[in-house]
Structures are given as structure tokens and as C-alpha cells.
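TEACHING EXERCISE
Course module: macromolecular assemblies
Task: Read the component lines below, then compare them to the predicted structure of the full complex.
Student: A.B.
Group: 4
Components provided:
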Amino acid sequence: MSAPAEPKRAKTPTLHDLRALTQARIALGAHGAGLPTGAALAFGLDHARAREAVWTPLDAAAIRESLRAQGLASIELRTTVADRAEYLRRPDRGRTLNPDSEAALDGLGQGFDVALVIADGLSATAVALNAVPSAAALAARAAQAGWSLAPVAVVHQGRVAIGDPIGARLGARCVVVLIGERPGLSASDSLGCYITCAPEPGLPDSRRNCISNIRQDGLAIGAAADQMEALLRAMMAQGTSGVGLRRESLVGPPAPSLPEA
Amino acid sequence: MAYATTLEGTRFTFPDLRGLLAKATPERSGDQLAGLCAEGPVERLAAQIALADLPLKTFLAEELIPSDADEVSDLIARRHDARAFAPVASLTVGAFREWLLSPAADAAALAALAPGLTPEMVAAVSKLCRLQDLVAITAKRPVVTRFRSTIGLPGRLATRNQPNHPTDSSAGILISALDGLLMGSGDAMIGVNPATDSLPDYIRIVELLETLRLRLNVPTQHCCLGHVTVAIEAMGRGAPVDLVFQSVAGSQKANAGFGVDLAILREAAEAGRALGRCPEGGQFMYFETGQGSALSADAHWGVDQQTMEARAYAVAREFDPLLVNTVVGFIGPEYLYNGKQIIRAGLEDHFCGKLLGLPMGVDVCYTNHADADGEDMDALLTLLCAAGVNFVITVPGADDVMLNYQSLSHHDAVFARETLGRPPAPEFEAWLRAVRITDAQGRLAGASGELPPALEEASRLLPGRAA
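Instructor-supplied answer key:
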């Protein structure tokens, strides 16, 4: 440190000074080929959070209690998936209801404007934090619009397309699926919303509209619920959803397509 | 035709060649999802024993997917070189494995054999190989390609510097690319996966990368990994496109899912050649592949995912690429469940690509819902370096903030250079020394994130500086 300073290139910022230009983990420093200990542990913590989000079971009882506090009736459903490891290996089984759940649904009657589904998907963390407030915000808009709302289906080990058999059994005009998105290292609490008009089993993903990244530091719940309402209005007017839905009357830009949760 | 073997009085039968290959495949979740896998380890071994006795030339007589329904099968059949195949024509799959391991299979013999091999043959023999076999055989088979840098020379490891940004911000891409260069990454290419797929963004990104390359005078090539039809349009408008990229798969239907066919790829290759940026005798095409892509497109024809992956290499081989890599752990746990499956798949893909004559690299990577972590990637990188992989992909801190998965970090490339003794491409190695990113021994000179004096030019590209 006592060596005379080299001629200054004071105007040249270091990459460290410019870290705000990207979320990428730049200018970490290195010791040989190794990361500084702090950076290594920070990465480990982010990965641990993401893994926890994937592997934590859905706390359906807590979600149903919160829904009840918001004045929303609910029903608890299961897919044909046996456990989390099977869920990850067999996306097909996460799209099918088990027979007991089918029977339970049939007891609810038919002919709702909107069926609302909360499924764990790939992040129980996202569902625990963001699903009930999103459901309540949508329910308030549905009540204002005069739409009938089916009891909220809370689904263990569900994929996006589980909304199709649920919506079909309820005879719903549209189904809204709130589901945990695949966690990244930077965010493990993103909720996705997939909306389908005239749901029936076997629909392609191109029949869905998606609103993604619903979380505290992403798309705010109120704004997301506004988008859901606008999509539902358009779907009910046009009788379709997905790539065939004309979007000119909708708020906000078209949602990006996402890898399936 | 049915295949069978008897083990201690129990007869195992396999009704066709597809089924035999699938049941002989080491366990992976994608084949389980497709309902193709062996019922257990004994049935798998029975299939492997039957496969070992299968004459290699069976694959020339019996197509897994009919040529008249699939242009990839047609391509494989049309391009097969019987004369090159002759040295191994009389072998069974099991004897072929032994020949590959023997000293007779040296670099020259393997290079001469490549046009005589089909994807099905190399996939079949890989199913009889343990990891060490896959490493030992591929370590004997360098495949060298060249644009501004020479990639795949024995004992060297190149890297794709992947400076992705969630919204394709020019400043964000630039900073990330510089971060990688300062860690010595980028001799295979500087390649951006765009978040959007619009023509203006594609052109903006390649122009940005071209400016960076020229300012730094860095001997590498760049790529925006947009859809090949966007690249064709951009080339038509004179954009500075170094590498022409496309994802490809092992059947016509799966390629249709990617929005391409052989004719579109041919058009793209002709357009790239016409730009004249690549030196005479060099290569400029770039392909990515990955096990499971055919199944996810419902286009696997009842063929196991590893054999479908090898068939994608027949597509790549048609276009004499500079670089090909499997994105091995990206697709998710329904295809490759855990670190063990990802590691094996990475080595299989590298093996099959190299035997078919491809300049094979690997994106050593995983997602957060796979049962894998950075330690699995440490193991795969080390094994791939032993196997002589042409290149790997590196991102800042192993975290791709656009694609939301974990690849290798630039630090991992430093590990490969300094601990495993794998220097980069010679032109890039000389550049790193000349601009003092590395010292005379090839070690990183410093990691403070400061631009060395020789890179002052690059600082003018940074935000807030005069261009």
C-alpha cells in the first residue's frame, strides 16, 4: 500500500462500481479460482431458498383458514401424484384429479362464472405468501362484476393444467389457476396466474393466458388482479382464451410466455 | 424383429429395436415418463446383454423412425459412408465398445470412422459404456474447428461467455461480457440468449457484441441466439452476424416444434457463408441440443431420449458447425431427475457428438427443481475436462439471471485452466496475456474488476462515457 500510486485513470469505473446495471453476479472477486467465502455462501443460501420452495409441502389448512377469514369458501383436492418426488417426475399425474377429489367436486354443483384454483406448483413459498391475497383481490372484483364464484379449489401436487378438469366438472365459464412458479435464485416466491376460458381436459397451453411474477418485488397483487379481471371480461365477451383472444381492450402489455410451472 | 436373451432360465424378450435400445438405457426419468424404460436393473442388464450381441450393421438394415416419414432418418441414411464403416462392419455393439477402448482406435482411426457411424450406433454403444469408458474413448477423439479462434485442440478448453440480461439491456449485457472477459472467458464465443425474439433487438445485440469485439480486438466470435429465421432476416439487412444459431432435435416433428427444418437451416448456412466473415475453411454454425426435447414436443416416436439426442447430432453434422453443445440439465427433472442422471447424460452427449465428428461442448447446468447442485456440476466439469470437451458455458457467479438456471461460473473456467491445466484457444490465450488479464504463466493477473490499461478502449462503451 505504500508504493507510489500509478497515474490515475480516475474516470474509468470498475465493474464493481457498475453492478447496478445488471442483476447478474458480476465483479465477485476471486481467490485463485475460488469465490470469496461471502459470495459462495450467498449463492448457497439462494439455492437453499429455492430448493425449500420446491420441496416444502403445501399448507392447505392454513390457506383455507385464510380464505375463510376473507369470506371465501374452499375445497381441498388432490391429484394422482403420490409424493413430491413423483410430482417432479410425472407432470402428467399433476394434471389429473384423484377419484375422491372428482367426487367431492361433483357435490358442489355446476354452472359458475369463475372457478378459482390455488395449486402448489413448484413453489409452496409463493403460494403461502401470495395466493390468498390474490384470490381475495380477484373475488372482490368478481363480486363487483356480478360473476358467480365457485368455492376455491386448493390443490396438492398440481400442475397448471389441473384447472382444466376442475373447471370442467364445475361447469365454469373460465378457470383461474394461481400456482407457484419454478423458483429462480433471485426470487423463489413468484406466483403465476393462468386463465382459461371453457376449460376441459386436454387443452393445449396455447389456450391459456398467463400473468407471471406476482410477488412483493414483482407484479403487485392489485395490478395482477386488475389484469385478471380484464382477461376474464375479454374471455367472457369473446368466448375464447389464449392465442385466439383479441387483446386490444386489455390493460397492460401481453404477458410473456413462461416455462410451465 | 424381436430380440431376446436368457439369464439363468428367465427369458427376456424385446419386441423391436427401439424397445431394446430403450430398455438398455441407464435409468433416467424421461424414459420413465415416456413409459419406455426397463422395469428394473435386471431387465436393463438383460437388454444390455442382448444389445451387446447385436451386429452393428443391424442399424443400417432397420430404421428406428422410417425415412419416408422423417427427414432426419432420411438424412442419416443418405449420408452414411459404407467405406468409412468397413473397419467395424463385422463387429457387434459389444465388440465395437472393446475396439473403441483399444489402442487401435486412435485419433486418426476415429476421425476416419466418423462418416461411417450413425447416431443409432453411437447411442447403442454408449449404453454399454460406464462413465470411465465414455471419458477414455472421447479423450482420444479431438475435433478441431476454427473461426477467429481455434477450438478443440488437445489439452485445451474453450468457454462461451454468456452475458444474458433479463430485458436485453445493452449496458447489462456489456458489463456482464466484460466481467467474463476479465475472468478469461469467451474464446469459444460471446453468446447472448435474447429475452425477446424481435429483429431490431437481434440486430442491436449483434451490433453491440461486434463493437465490443472490435474495440477490444479480441480473437473470438459472437452470437445472438435468436431464432434462425430472425438471423436470416438480420443477415439480409447486413447485420454483423458471426455465428448462425439454432436449437435442433432428433426428428422432423421435433424440429418443426422449434420452427425449423433442414431446408431452413440450409438457407441460413448459405446466408452465413455469403457474409464472408468466417475465414476460408472455417466454421460458423452453432447448434444447441438436449435430451428430452423430442419427448417434450411429443415427437420421439417411442425412441429413448438419449438415442433421439444422438439423432440431433446428425442434423448438426450436416452443417459443419463451429460449435455444438447439449444444454444438459436445463430441461428439468422429468427428463433428467438428479445429479447422477445429468452427469451421465452430459458425458453420453459429449461421447456421441465426438464419435460422430462434432466439435462438442456442454452447458454444464441444472435447475432448482432438479435434485442437483453445484457439486454435481463440479464433478461433471472435471470429468468433461478429462474427456477433452471442446467448450463449456460460463456466466457470472453460475447464475443466469435471464434463463433462471445455474450454469458454470467464470470462476469454474479459471479452475479448469489453473488446476486441470486446460488453457484456452491459443489466439485467445495470447490475447489474454497481451492485455494482461493473465500473467506469463496463464494465471489471472487480478480479479478486481478493473479494466487493464490495454482495455481502456472498452471503457468508452460503458454508461456515462463518451463513445
